[in-house]
Write a structure and sequence with these properties.
single chain; alpha+beta; 3 strands
Length: 70
């Protein structure tokens, strides 16, 4: 499922659904993927593009992997 409000973690480079990661952060204060400290201020809004809805879950994961490698 493609996130409706995608945000990028500046800590792990992964993309999350904003409302879900905020809920998670209120409980743990860490990035869900790598467990490193993460705050709401470290989340970057991902601006959607017209074709964004065409992306699959795999594309979002591949994109986050690409960001982490750079």
């Amino acid at each position: 499922e493609v996130p409706e409000q995608p945000v990028l973690s500046s800590v792990s480079g992964c993309i999350y659904e904003k409302r879900l990661v905020l809920k998670y952060l209120h409980e743990s204060l860490t990035d869900p993927i790598n467990g490193q400290p993460l705050t709401e201020d470290q989340l970057i809004d991902v601006k959607s593009i017209s074709s964004y809805k065409k992306f699959s879950k795999i594309n979002v994961v591949d994109f986050s992997y690409t960001i982490r490698k750079t």
